[in-house]
Amino acid sequence: MERIAFEFGFIKIYWYSIFIFLGVITSYSVILMEAKKRGFEKQFIVDLVFNTVIIGLIGARIYYCLFHLSYYLKHPLEIVQIWNGGLAIHGGILFGGIFVTYYCKKHKVELLKMIDIIVVGVILGQAIGRWGNFFNGEAYGGITSLTHLQSMHLPRFIIDGMYILGEYRQPTFLYESFFNMLGFMILVIIRKYPYLKIGQLTGFYFMWYSFTRFMIEGMRTDSLMIGKIKMAQLVSIILLIVGFIIFIYYKRIKKVSKTEHLYRDNGSKLQMKQPLFL
Integer distance in angstroms from the first to the last C-alpha of the chain? Predict the structure, then answer.
């Protein structure tokens, strides 16, 4: 599979970078539309997303590099070459989540309500970003046959792209992209429920994505490992439990008071005193 989309002299634009960019822009658009409905100012969201993306990318790269520390200590200049792949979404979630927490606390915004808005855009961005892994020859599964891939009625370019290391491979990137897209559609439907509580979208996102990632990670052969344990599966178990606790806790609040702590309640417009750029 050709990794380079365009070349302009010594400038090379990689498909991986294009799909990461498309994922970010699409995610931002979804977040902005919903945030404006919920009463947030555009500048607040622009600053939030811009900084979160930067910090999330740094976190995703650091997370990945730590699992290949001996290699990157010998080749430190390659640490910044993210166009070659090597971004771990769990690192991005961790670092991005820390910044969102700080940002919301600084501007006195209810954290879970902001995360509820963010996760719907994030899972769509994840679905798009997985295609960058495809063009980079990453996030693939175990050995399979050409006949099996053809029986799935996949486009020829995907089948050809799954010929990796001399064997045809399971397109696990595609499975995850599909289930992330499905999760996005479910979240959009849930969001329309009039008595949805703040925090329940967040809880559902963690449960859906973590269960999906756990199952698909079991099929992958290029996972980040700690001994014999796949790190993504371990983190997925933790986030699945966290998501379940969040969802159930706010479901209990719903039973106590059906019309309080609602996601669809809009407060006064949030005014930004000054933009925040790191």
Answer: 37
